[in-house]
C-alpha cells in the first residue's frame, strides 16, 4: 500500500548529459531480476556524498568514504556500482575485500583506476557478497550503458520497495538551463536483516571543486535526513549528488546567482524523492508532515519534529484517524527542550487550531479534528513560541501491516 | 495478554506499620469502580519522589514537587491521594486549582496542612478534573483507612492495566527486620490520551532526613527508569518511596551496614514492580532483558540498551520469534557511541553466542538462535568491549495487539 505515489513515467525522466547507466541481472539473490547498476560520469564531473552514521556501517560505505577522500590523488570519481540482494554489511575483512574487488573489476572494464569508483550494496546483511556473480555480470551492465536508462536504474536498486522511485526537473538559471534527475530506494529499515536508503541525483550543471560537498550535506539535511519510517538507521544509507558540468551552467562560488536557484531545485527534488520513500513506507496508510516553527534553533525544532514523528502512540493514532492531541503534546513535552514553556505552545491539525497556549483550544471541536484526520495527507503544525527557527519532517503512520511486514518476513 | 504475571495474593502483601490506605468509588469516569485512593503516613515519616521530565507535566506533578520542596516549612508529608479516570494534565490554571482543592479537602478530613499532601492523577488528559466527585468521595476513602488494604489499593490505581500489580518482602538487617511493600500501575503510555506509570513503595524502616531523596533516584534509575514499552514518557509519571520509621531499623547515614541491605532490597522490589508493567505491556507476548556490559560509562550502556529496546524492528522480530541479528547490531551501531569499535562487539541471545567481534559468530547456528527465541523470556547480552560499566533494561515485543489497542481505543 502506498500513499499518493504514482509510478514514474519513463518519458518524464530526463537524461543528464555526461551521465550514463547500465543494468544487468547478476542473480545475486534471485534469478531474472535487475540487481546490478553501473553509473558512469564524464571526465571533469564532481561527486559528493553523505553516508550513514551507523557504527556498523557496511564495507562499501567505508570504501566510498576512502575513495572520495582520495579524490584528486587517484583521479576524480568516474563511476558508481550498486548491487541489491546483499548489503555486504557485518562481513568483516572479506566484505572489504569484495567491495574492493568489485571496484577493481569495473575499473578494468572502464579503463580507470579502482579508486575512481564508488561501490554500494543493499539487501541481506551478515552474508558474504557473491562476488563472482557480480564480476561476471559487470561487463553486461557496462555493455548497455546509456543516458536514457533512468527508469531501469530505479528498478535495479529496489529491494523491498513496491515500485521504482524517480523524478526529474529542468531549471532555468541566468546562465542557462540545467537538468536534474534522481532515483532512490527505501521503504523502512527492514528485511533480513534490513533494507537501506540509497539516493542518487545527477545534474549537468558544473561546480567548482569543493562546492558540492557542503551543498550535498545541506540538501540531505532538508530531505533524506528529514524523513523517518521507524527511526532505525541502516548500515548502508548513502546519498550522492553528481554534477557532470556538461551544460552551460558552471558555478564558481556559492555567491553565483545560479547557485541559490540550483540549491533550491536540488532540495525540492531530493525532498520529492525522500517523500516517495515515506509514501512507500512499510504498511503506510497516511503521509504526515510535521512542521515545527517558533523554535530558538533548527536543532530544537528537529528534536520536537522527531519526537512526534517517532512516537508509536502518535503513529497508531494517525493510523486510526484519531485526533489524539494528548499523544502529540506529550511527545513535544519529552522531546528534550528542558526549558520549554508549554503555555506558549500552539498546535494545528491541518487548518484546525487544536491546542492553544499549551492546552485544548476552547473553540476546538472534535468533529473538526476528525475531519482532518480522514485525509491521506495530514500536516501537524507546532509553534513553540520561543523564536524564529523552523524544521519540517515527514513520516507515515504505524499500521497492522508494518508489524506483519516486519514480523513475518523470515517465517 | 501478559507474560508470566501471576495475580498478587492478598496474604502475601505485608502491612507496613504506620502506613494506611483507604479506597473509594468516586465515579470519576465510570461508576462502581475503585478510582480514589488515600494513603496516610505516621508522624515522623520520610517521603521522596521522582517525577516525569515531560515539560507537559500534569498539575498534580507540579503540586507534588512544590509540596516536597516546602517540606519542613509546612510540616512533613503525611498523606497522598490518587485518582484514576482523569490525569488532570493539559488543564492549565483550573487544573492547578483542582489539584490544590483536592489537597485542601483531604487536609480538612485528616486535620493536617494541605501542603502535607501529595496528589496524583492518571487517566484521560485535556479534560477538567471532576473535582466535586473527588471531594464528595474523599471522606469515604478516609473512613476505610487501614494497613491491610494493599490489594485494593493496587486495584484502585489501575487504568489500562489488565491486573493489579503489587509485591512485598521482609528483609533482615543487623538492626532488625524491615517490611517493604509496593504497588504500581502502567501498561504503556496510552489511552485517550495516555496512561501513566505510578509507583508507590512503603517501608517501616526509618531514614535520617535527606537520605531518602538520593536513594529514591538510585532505585528509580535501576528499576522504573530502566523499562520501556513504547518509549513514550507520560505527563504524570511518578515514583514515591515512603519510610514510616515504625520498625527498629533506623538508618542514620549511607555508611550504616543496614543501608546497603535495604538499598538492594528496594532496588530488587522496585525492579519486580517495574517488570510487572513490562509483563503487562500492551500487546506483549515476550519479556526481553537487554543487558549491556563492557561499556566505558553506565550512560553509554544505557544508550545502547535503549536503542535496542526501542527499535520497532527489533521488537517486531522478537514478536515473530525471529533471531534477526542484523537489526540488533544496527541498533547498537546507531545508539550514539561515536567512537564505538564494532570489531570488539559481542552479542548473545540467551546462552547462544551469535555475534563475535562485530560479525556473525562462525560457530553460530540459526537453529540455536531460533530455539532461544521460542521462549517467552529472552535475554540479549551485548558486550561493547571497551570498559567495565553495565546497564540493563527491560522491554516487551511489538505485536499486532499493540497497534490494535492503541489504534482502536477511541473508535
From TrEMBL, chains A, B:
Enzyme Commission number, as recorded: 2.3.1.35, 2.3.1.1
Annotated positions binding substrate: 159, 185, 196, 282, 406, 411
Entries under Pfam families matching the protein: ArgJ (PF01960)
GO CC list: cytoplasm
Subcellular location: Cytoplasm
Catalysed reaction equations from the record: N(2)-acetyl-L-ornithine + L-glutamate = N-acetyl-L-glutamate + L-ornithine; L-glutamate + acetyl-CoA = N-acetyl-L-glutamate + CoA + H(+)
Example of a GO MF term: L-glutamate N-acetyltransferase activity, acting on acetyl-L-ornithine as donor
Keywords: Acyltransferase, Amino-acid biosynthesis, Arginine biosynthesis, Autocatalytic cleavage, Cytoplasm, Multifunctional enzyme, Transferase
Keyword Cell division among record annotations: no
Pathway: Amino-acid biosynthesis; L-arginine biosynthesis; L-ornithine and N-acetyl-L-glutamate from L-glutamate and N(2)-acetyl-L-ornithine (cyclic): step 1/1; Amino-acid biosynthesis; L-arginine biosynthesis; N(2)-acetyl-L-ornithine from L-glutamate: step 1/4
Superkingdom, natural source: Bacteria
Gene Ontology biological-process entries: L-arginine biosynthetic process; ornithine biosynthetic process
Subunit comment: Heterotetramer of two alpha and two beta chains.
Free-text function comment from the UniProt entry: Catalyzes two activities which are involved in the cyclic version of arginine biosynthesis: the synthesis of N-acetylglutamate from glutamate and acetyl-CoA as the acetyl donor, and of ornithine by transacetylation between N(2)-acetylornithine and glutamate.
Family according to the record: Belongs to the ArgJ family.
Protein name (record): Arginine biosynthesis bifunctional protein ArgJ
Organism per entry: Polynucleobacter yangtzensis
Amino acid at each position: 500500500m502506498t500513499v499518493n505515489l504514482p509510478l514514474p513515467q519513463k518519458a518524464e525522466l530526463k537524461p543528464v548529459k555526461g551521465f550514463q547507466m547500465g543494468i544487468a541481472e547478476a542473480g545475486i539473490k534471485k534469478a531474472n531480476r535487475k540487481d546490478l547498476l553501473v553509473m558512469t560520469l564524464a571526465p571533469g564531473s564532481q561527486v559528493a556524498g553523505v553516508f550513514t552514521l551507523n557504527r556498523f556501517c557496511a564495507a562499501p560505505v567505508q570504501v566510498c568514504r576512502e575513495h572520495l577522500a582520495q579524490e584528486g590523488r587517484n583521479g576524480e570519481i568516474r563511476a558508481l556500482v550498486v548491487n541489491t540482494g546483499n548489503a555486504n554489511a557485518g562481513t568483516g575483512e572479506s566484505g572489504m575485500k569484495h567491495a574492493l574487488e568489485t571496484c577493481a573489476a569495473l575499473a578494468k572494464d572502464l579503463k580507470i583506476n579502482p579508486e575512481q569508483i564508488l561501490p554500494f550494496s543493499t539487501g541481506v546483511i551478515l552474508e558474504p557478497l557473491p562476488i563472482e556473480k557480480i564480476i561476471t555480470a559487470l561487463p553486461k551492465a557496462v555493455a548497455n550503458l546509456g543516458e536514457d536508462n533512468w527508469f531501469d536504474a530505479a528498478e535495479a536498486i529496489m529491494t523491498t520497495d513496491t515500485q521504482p522511485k524517480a523524478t526529474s526537473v529542468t531549471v532555468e538559471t541566468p546562465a542557462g538551463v540545467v537538468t536534474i534527475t534522481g532515483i532512490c530506494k527505501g521503504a523502512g529499515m527492514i528485511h533480513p536483516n534490513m533494507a537501506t536508503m540509497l539516493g542518487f541525483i545527477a545534474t549537468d550543471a558544473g561546480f567548482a571543486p569543493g562546492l558540492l560537498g557542503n551543498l550535498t550535506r545541506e540538501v540531505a539535511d532538508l530531505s533524506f535526513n528529514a524523513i523517518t519510517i521507524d527511526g532505525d538507521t541502516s548500515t548502508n544509507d548513502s546519498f550522492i549528488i553528481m554534477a557532470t558540468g556538461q551544460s552551460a551552467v558552471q558555478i564558481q562560488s556559492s555567491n553565483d546567482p545560479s547557485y541559490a536557484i540550483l540549491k533550491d531545485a536540488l532540495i525540492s527534488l531530493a525532498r520529492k524523492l525522500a517523500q516517495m520513500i515515506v509514501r512507500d513506507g512499510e504498511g503506510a496508510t497516511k503521509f504526515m508532515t510535521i512542521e515545527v516553527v517558533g523554535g530558538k534553533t533548527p536543532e530544537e525544532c528537529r528534536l520536537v519534529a522527531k519526537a512526534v514523528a517517532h512516537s508509536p502512540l502518535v503513529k497508531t493514532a494517525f493510523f486510526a484517524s484519531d485526533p489524539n492531541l494528548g499523544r502529540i503534546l506529550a511527545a513535544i513535552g519529552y522531546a528534550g527542550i528542558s526549558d520549554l514553556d508549554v503555555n506558549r505552545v500552539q498546535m494545528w491539525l491541518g487548518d484546525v487550531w487544536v491546542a492553544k497556549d499549551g492546552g485544548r483550544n476552547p473553540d476546538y471541536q472534535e468533529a473538526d479534528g476528525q475531519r482532518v484526520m480522514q485525509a491521506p495527507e495530514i500536516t501537524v503544525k507546532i509553534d513553540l513560541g520561543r523564536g524564529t527557527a523552523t524544521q519540517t519532517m515527514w513520516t507515515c503512520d504505524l499500521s497492522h501491516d508494518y508489524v506483519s511486514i516486519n514480523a513475518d518476513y523470515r517465517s
